[in-house]
Amino acid sequence: MNFLEERIVKDGVVKEGNVLKVDSFLNHQMDIKLFDQMGEAFKEKFREKNINKILTIEASGIGIACIVAKHFDVPVVFAKKAKSINLDGEMYTAEVESFTHKTKNQIIVAKKFLTAEDRILIIDDFLANGCALQGLIQLVQAAGAEVCGIGIAIEKGFQPGGQIIRNLGYQLESLAIVESMNGETGEIVFRSQE
Ligand code: 5GP
């Protein structure tokens, strides 16, 4: 097991509805040393990609993205979730359905922060059905920029997002892929990756 898988086994809690709770170290209280290890791991995987910007989505992607960005020495842009569709023309927008809240949100990024020259690394905490990622990819495409890689902390491999995104041809790297998890015993099985 790698460092993140070990931490998930130690402190993750399997909840009903295929939800893995990792709020003691990842998306409520945040373990910055762990984030730093994740940054190092992503830098290793995307070293050759000439990344010049990191894109994530509020809220829980932001903390990880900021620490990852230190390893690439690039800025972070986060897509905002907007309730209103009354948005001016200075924004790129996409629609995203939230896995955890079952609601639909517009996500937006100001046009001035995504340009056709950008080589983007997308970072997020979880990958489940892939809706968040598809929304982020749409924003990058609308700007004429390039998605050069996608880094995810925890992918739930039993949900379809990973396969959908890989089939689109993107280099998607997840530091931990949960193959299965049992809500009664709490057992978590990871996909082996080399
Ligand atoms: P997707 O759009 O891929 O279905 O879901 C991705 C988003 O849903 C992530 O940004 C994350 O915030 C949230 N999410 C999905 N599954 C889980 C989960 O099992 N646990 C937690 N804590 N968040 C999740």
UniProtKB/TrEMBL annotation:
Homodimer. Belongs to the purine/pyrimidine phosphoribosyltransferase family. Xpt subfamily. One of its GO terms (cellular component) is cytoplasm. The lineage of its organism: Bacteria, Bacillati, Bacillota, Clostridia, Peptostreptococcales. GO terms for biological process: purine ribonucleoside salvage; xanthine metabolic process; XMP salvage. Its main location: cytoplasm. It comes from Emergencia timonensis. NCBIfam families: PRK09219.1, XPRTase. This is Xanthine phosphoribosyltransferase.
